[in-house]
């Protein structure tokens, strides 16, 4: 470190202390300094000397490069991302000023980020209540709780990504073999056994026999994911709990669902580490099938991972992800693209995600235009869960992946002579009750606030005729 360079690492120091559950007094004792000095360092009122940096690295077994590489840059990048919210659109916020706040007033920056996250969660909760006209006195929905938690954070958890990337590197030292890693690190043997023995489980950890048991009908991608998931539960519990602690849950089920989602996030991050995966998506122009083969993952796992690439300073195309069954039931929804999908009730039938069931395993593309003029590009394809043997039950679902028009040119699906143009966008609505496209023949319900005309004399081609005002 150059002698004339002052190093301020207040936010990083505070994060290290909190991750280890230490008070400023505890850290001061560990480092053999006064608590007031630790407080000054955390507020960036004092620079971190080379001697103190080495002492910090040795005391807590830290990599010096990871300490000095970010500084306030991560906080600054998070602030920059948050300040893109339309609520701040009329305020001039130069990046230099944002950097100054992150670097010189880390406490204020952290307080603002916490407040914004809480705002996002309450905003989504209000949308839920408004969509159904529900009263706050009714029992909370655990699924909604979990979805709001993920949506408020754009389904991006850099703490999990960083930890998973380190584990991926360790696994690579075992020739990329998760079974070999489990054997060496935990003395656990991986065994594949028949479904009849698994009795309804696809994965089970047998502590007594020191074994991880897998259903032998799982395909290769599912096996890898289940092993990565077990690794996340065994070695990333602290990081998962830290991420979970940022939320506030009214139900135990909501918290458990969220913990499961975070563990699944960690497993996908182990299979598809952030850095290599982010570079690959650009090299392959977001070709989901090609990426799936490169990383040994399924189409759904890869599409899901694409929604998580919003690490501050390393963002890629933001996507909206949805998984639906043939009846239109939504079993998973993640929004990083600002797509206003109906939070309750059915979506628009003109979106081709519903058409995929007629053309299984084919990728369908489509431009969509909302009533306010926003355009999104969509890719959709069916995926199959279950099976693995003759007569085994299978479940077919459709995966939809969307991005805003401004990002669509980066996708391989919009390239070449067969690529559709935005001008050919299909007019859709969020849901029939909120859509005022009077000519739509696919409408299932009249929109709120429009007077329906009688059909005594004239019957319109659309299901409902409306008065002009």
Automatic annotation (TrEMBL):
Under the heading Gene3D superfamilies, the entry gives: lambda repressor-like DNA-binding domains (1.10.260.40)
- Keyword Coiled coil annotated: no
Domain HTH cro/C1-type spans what residues?
Answer: 13-67
- Coiled-coil boundaries: none
> Which UniProt keywords are present, listed alphabetically?
DNA-binding, Transcription, Transcription regulation
The record's CDD domains line, in alphabetical order, gives: HTH_XRE (cd00093)
Say which family it is in.
Answer: Belongs to the short-chain fatty acyl-CoA assimilation regulator (ScfR) family.
The name this protein carries in UniProt is Short-chain fatty acyl-CoA regulator family protein
Organism of origin: Phenylobacterium terrae
